[in-house]
Amino acid sequence: MPSEALDIPLPDNASSALVRKLGALCLMSDEEITFMEGLQNHIVDIEKGRDFVEEGSDLRTTCVISEGWAVRYIMLEDGRRQILSYALPGDIIGLHINFRAQATYSAAALTPLKVATIDPRRMTEISQKFPVLAAGLSWCTAREFAILGDQTVRLGRLAAPERLAHFLLELWHRLDLINEVDGTWIDMPMTQSDLADTLGLSLVHTNRSLKTLRDANLVTVTRDAVRLDDVNALMNMSHFNPDHLTEFSI
């Protein structure tokens, strides 16, 4: 099972994925929960496939993914795409835009999205009023760096089936933190082309990697979901370490 950072019950009045994620990491007061929920009261709908951040564009709004999945990616001039990471419910895009004016990547809706848009000046209130929450948001930033580090290792050192196993385990642990897994089943809303662009593989090698894991009885694959049938074996083959996805202390 995914490792847990702290044995903290989720807040009873947590409705947003961001509050569920922060509430799994640190004890939150009613005042802190109310503040974080209030920050997210302006929700916009983004249709599947639409870019809502463009590389090089001015960043003016902090976005919290309320529902759905998004991808962060870079498109090369020749049309090749590298997916950097996935933004899941509770993840923040543009957390530190007060410090950088332009986007260094594009972000697109992988599924229909509900996004809370926040004036970045409101985010600075957190460090002034709620230091524990500020530490939790700093952890979110540190985890994004860790996820990008894992992506670098996947692309640079792991064989194709290992890349896929490592990526599936990452998704499982991240979704478990916000209570969006069913046992070892995880949703897979991406296409095989998306998966190939994530893993730095051709479509042929992506399909072969899925077949390798399936034939070894490590996963069960359906049209829009994957079940991890032997988590320990997947972790061993992919050298996956989940600690940086959940560890938090203050």
What does this structure look like?
This protein has 250 residues and is α+β, with helices and mostly antiparallel strands. It is built from nine helices and eleven strands. The protein has a domain at 145-246: Arc Repressor Mutant, subunit A. The protein has helices at residues 17-23, 30-39, 120-129, 131-157, 160-177, 192-199, 203-215, 231-238, 243-246, and strands at residues 43-46, 51-53, 62-67, 70-75, 81-87, 92-93, 106-109, 113-118, 185-187, 219-221, 225-228. The strands form three sheets. The protein has a four-stranded antiparallel β-sheet with strand order 1-8-3-6. A four-stranded antiparallel β-sheet has the order 2-7-4-5. A hairpin with a 5-residue loop joins strand 4 and strand 5 (81-87). Helix 3 packs across helix 4 (131-157), helix 5 crosses helix 7 and helix 5 (160-177) crosses helix 8 (231-238). The relative contact order is 0.15.
Q: In DSSP terms, counting alpha (H) and pi (I) runs of 4 or more, how many helices? A: 9
The tally of beta strands, per DSSP, is 11
Mean pLDDT: 90
Ends apart, CA distance between termini = 24 Å
CATH class of the domain at 145-246, named Mainly Alpha
Strand content: 15-25%
